[in-house]
Amino acid sequence: MNKMFRIVILITMIFVVNSIVNTTTLEMDLQNIKTVQVDAGDTLWSISQKALAHTEDIDIREYIVAIEEINHLQHGTALRAGETLMIPTLKEKTMFVFITAWANN
User: Fold this and answer.
1) Residue 42 and residue 54: Cα distance in Å, rounded?
2) Rounded mean pLDDT of 85-103?
């Protein structure tokens, strides 16, 4: 019975560690920028919502700050239709990369 319990615990631990290591999240990639054209009525919030529509991994406020910094905009600057903005792309970040970086420090 004791041996069977150890095997069950070991298998459970393998599944738990595997699910943690293979977890994928998204992060901003400030090295790869794309451009978007501002439409009438667009705001940094609405542009950010479109860019982040498929993820909840990134705080929209942090994304807006990144857009402001990339484009050298003052906070609250009104956008003009037809204007081109640079926005960060998104890249995958796996927990394996996080664990490797943590282990190297």
Assistant:
1) 19
2) 72
